[in-house]
Structure prediction request, 601 residues.
Amino acid sequence: MLLSLRIENFALIDRLEQEFGPGLNVLTGETGAGKSIILDAIDVALGGTASSRLLRTGSQRGLVEATFALSDRVCEWLQAQEIELLDDGSVVCSREMKVSQGSLRSRMRINGILANRKLMGQLRDLLVEIAAQGQTVQLMVPANQRELLDIYGGQALLERRGQVTRLYESCRKAEKALESRKQSEQERLQRLDWLKYQLQELNAADLKDPDELLALERERDRLFHIVELQQQSYQAYQVLYQNDTGAPAGADLLGQAEAILTDMVAYDSQLELLLDLVREAQTQVVEAGKQIYSYGAGLESEPERLVEVEERLRLLKHLCRKYGPELGDAIAYAQKLQAELEDLTHSSQSLEALEQDYRCAREEFEQASVKLTQDRQTAATRLEKTLIEELKPLAMEKVQFECRIVPTSESSTGRDRVVYYFSPNPGESAQPLSETASGGEMSRFLLALKACLSQAEARQRTLIFDEIDAGVSGKVAGAIAEKLHHLSRDFQVLCVTHQPLVAAMADAHFRVDKQIIDAPAQPVTVGSRNGNSKRSSDRESEALAMTDLRTVVRVTQLQNHQTRRQELAQLAGGNSTQDAIAFAESLLARAAGRKQPRSIS
Prediction:
């Protein structure tokens, strides 16, 4: 159930915070007053299409936030998505919109957690069902008629259809494998030869380490410069430990420094730390000298190894040019070729086995499709009876409705084409719905169909109707009002209407109207000749005490009998004449007598 709606800078709404209650919530107002903006905001908050034109003129940011009561199904879904539950037992769907570089960017959140369109769409299906006259176009498409029949058939039918979808995919996969086996055997063998040739070359190189090329280059440099390394290591040894030229080495100099500091410590004990540092440095220099000497002494010229390294480098670089560019890429390519080789080798399944697999998959799909057709026929029979009963109170006592199921080409949804046949007039044969129903009849048909579908769904969803009663009047409008009230006993219903008969049945009545307000003008800035922008001086000075007229949408809940009567009179007569007020009074009295207790809280 929709608890509240918060809107900022959306279309003509500058700011709105509105609460809604259980039962029938009705929005009324003049044509163009902005009633549908409220429903558009709900749609956008739940992941609907948003564009920059939806932002209020002059605004760079906007927000829509819809808060719903937490049902058991929604709670389970939130826990499955690991979205934290709120303490107040609600779920908040919000969307922030911002214009950046001429385009609209938005962020959707569920209980403060960022959500993508797919996730928001899943939650939307659990929270609301939106019906508008625009849906009548979709209702005329046979594929949509089949979808609605499946939904009406309930969970068992939907699970059967899911089984058919899986078997259809398996059948297609088996058929594709069979055709591929028939048509590409020669290509497969050619590909196998080519894979084996490339793998032979790559496997012969025994590629394992992606860093081998770098390691070999370093080893080549070391082997190539053995003589220089020997000479330089001996030079370093002399500088550090023992100098043949007679000049003091580093260890000798540090020894002299140690002797001096030893004498100094005798007079100042604070120098003991420095003495320790010098002694440690001398020890490290001596050790470094010994190690560099051992390093140089251990170096030997290895011409054979140098040749091996250079040959290995040439091979690896060749493979990198051919399969790289990096050695790691060549190794990955070899692994990919090996996997493809194994796949092609294992796919050498016999043609007879593939044909058997396809026959089995085809048989399972056909059997499941027959059962699905039977389930649909059972559901169609129930839908025909139920829908006719729902249409009778809507001034269609003699209506005919048939849900015909005819064979069609197979698909993931089975082998059925569903077409709704309809005749509102006695003596006239039923014709396809798209060819016979008028606008008013389609409105009633859609409302009755929603009533049927709602019986197959879990409660606590919000049903939203946008001018579902457009194009009807009189007795039919009254029947629609009764039907909406009947739905509101089990569901929260949100309805935009121009019909006083519908508005009179409301449990919560909201008037939507446009108002013109004074808004402070923005400071005027102009560009100078050199392209810089600066505030006006003299004729370019800031405009003071100026205002802009802006149009805003306001929503007012009519909470007492008098304001509701006044609004109904406006809907009925366009003014507050005595006759219109008396008519509105009678509508409210009659609605009070017809209302029945709701079964939702």
